[in-house]
Write a structure and sequence with these properties.
Helix 3 crosses helix 7 and helix 10 crosses helix 11. The longest helix has 21 residues. The N and C termini lie far apart (87 Å). The chain has 509 residues and is α/β, with parallel strands linked by helices. Keywords: NAD, Oxidoreductase.
Length: 509
């Protein structure tokens, strides 16, 4: 397909996207001013009409009205919607995965893996519906019982990014629905079709089990649509995934109205490679984490901090692997690296490489544009840049496949380099020395929300809470006890005696 002229290929992809939407049960969007482009060619798959201010207001109102009843439904019954959604996702895994490829540019295995992640979180949330536990504590007062209970929070706004156009929505939505909340979803304006498909499947799931489909709302558009959700007092929680700059805008506005935020922002993830590391294992972990999704993951590996004894050998291995990576149309067999999302991402990558060289870096390989998909598509070879120090450009997150190589001579220095960036999402160490591994996981080791040993920085499982510290925002989604973000806690004291003793032994009257 990559050799076909751009216009015929875009026409073919457009027809396929329309067919997939029909098979997924979604109505074809009415034409409008919001383009759905494919990064495979840069051409339009469709245009949609963005939600108006009135439509966004109405969507919030419908979600708020549905919440009044939904919060009273027992959690295991609420889980029926999520269970049915998981079944529909399983039935349509390949179709939805292909639509993700068309709209986000992911290669097939990664796109299908993202849909599988949605299925996994549905299974997790269904089981969790019977485990929304609160504590019972001993009271200091005779004849009293002290306990905590958890209750639904309200309307949850989900603002998702293009790089995981469906999985992040499902992380939030599956948990929020089981917790008794209703959801208004504002997807990235670059991936509106996958959002339309998922929203259709969820509302169908609700209808299939006899639940109110209004528990799920979808609004489409640019930043102004998201801003309306951020500022509306009926929205109890804003879960936002995106850049640090976006989070710096969202958080103060939500805080100003005393709402809640769950932020998943930038990552500048690093892996420390120690002298004892299995270099074959480390190379495989580094290449997948750094080059997968064309470097467009929040968990992408952006820095390697290698011991001076192994740095040269490691770089040789990574360079050899990089030169073997097939870059091209993600629908083609054997392709491992698809396109960047758009020209802006390509320009950001070129600017970062130029800055790195100006700051003393040496370009080992990559960075050049690959001719595929036509003049409006932006394919690049993943780049490796050796840096003399952790300069300003290294401390920034460039959402593209640039891997910076730094060196160290002792573990304290490596950890200092590792933690010496504003972001704190994911991290890794490759070592066969247990002491080094434990030090990396200790309180004075990695300062990230995710810290791995002998595995890369990407590929998190839904069983563990996902999120990071510092400028990553501090939010946690998906597994563990992240459900608590979607609920409010009440402390209850029950007096089953005929006396009224006061706490702390206070005597009054």
């Amino acid at each position: 397909m990559t050799s076909a002229p751009t216009a015929p290929l875009t026409d073919e992809l457009r027809a396929r996207a329309e067919q997939l939407l029909r098979e997924l049960g979604a109505e074809l969007p009415a034409p409008g001013s919001l383009p759905a482009r494919t990064p495979i060619t840069g051409g339009e798959l469709a245009t949609l009409r963005p939600s108006s201010t009135e439509e966004v207001d109405a969507a919030i109102g419908k979600a708020a009205n549905a919440f009044r009843t939904w919060r009273t439904v027992p959690a295991p019954q609420r889980a029926a919607v999520v269970r049915r959604l998981g079944q529909l996702l399983t039935e349509h895994l390949d179709r939805l995965g292909e639509l993700v490829t068309l709209e986000a540019g992911k290669i097939g295995p990664e796109a299908r893996g993202e849909v599988q992640e949605m299925i996994d979180i549905c299974e997790f949330a269904v089981g969790m519906s019977r485990q929304l536990y609160g504590y019972t504590m001993p009271s200091e007062r005779p004849g009293h019982r002290l306990m905590e209970t958890w209750h639904p929070l309200g309307v949850v706004a989900v603002l998702s990014a293009f790089n995981f156009p469906v999985a992040v929505w499902s992380w939030n939505t599956a948990l929020a629905l089981v917790c008794g909340d209703t959801v208004v979803w504002k997807p990235s304006e670059t991936t509106p079709l996958t959002a339309l498909a998922c929203h259709t499947l969820l509302r169908r799931a609700a209808v299939d089990v006899g639940a109110d489909p209004e528990i799920s709302q979808l609004v489409q558009g640019a930043a102004d649509v998201g801003a309306q959700l951020v500022d509306d007092e009926r929205v109890a929680l804003v879960s936002a995934t995106g850049s640090v700059r976006m989070g710096q805008t969202v958080a103060p506005r939500v805080a100003a109205r005393f709402g809640r935020c769950l932020l998943e922002l930038g990552g500048n993830n690093a892996a420390i490679i120690t002298p004892s590391a299995d270099l074959e294992l480390a190379t495989r972990g580094v290449v997948f984490a750094a080059a997968g999704t064309a470097g467009q993951r929040c968990t992408t590996l952006r820095r390697v901090i290698a011991h001076t004894d192994v740095a040269d050998a490691l770089v040789d291995r990574i360079e050899k692997a990089y030169r073997q990576l097939a870059v091209g149309n993600p629908l083609d067999d054997g392709v491992l690296v698809g396109p960047l999302i758009n020209e802006r991402a390509y320009n950001a990558m070129q600017n970062a490489i130029a800055r790195a060289i100006a700051e003393g870096g040496e370009l080992v390989c990559g960075g050049e544009r690959v001719e595929a998909g036509g003049p409006d598509a932006f394919y690049v070879r993943p780049a490796i840049v050796r840096m003399p120090a952790q300069t300003e450009v290294v401390r920034e997150e460039t959402f593209a496949p640039i891997l910076y190589i730094l060196t160290y001579s002792d573990l304290d220095t490596a950890i200092e380099l590792h933690n010496g960036v504003p972001q704190g999402l994911s991290s890794a160490i490759f070592t066969t020395d247990q002491r080094e591994a434990e030090r990396f996981l200790a309180a004075d080791g990695s300062d990230c929300g995710i810290a791995n040993v002998n595995i890369g920085t990407s590929g998190a499982e839904i069983g563990g809470a996902f999120g990071g510290e510092k400028q990553t925002g501090g939010g946690r989604e998906s597994g563990s006890d992240s459900w608590k973000a979607y609920m409010r806690r009440a402390t209850n004291t029950v007096n089953y005696s005929s006396e009224l003793p006061l706490a702390q032994g206070i005597q009054f009257g």
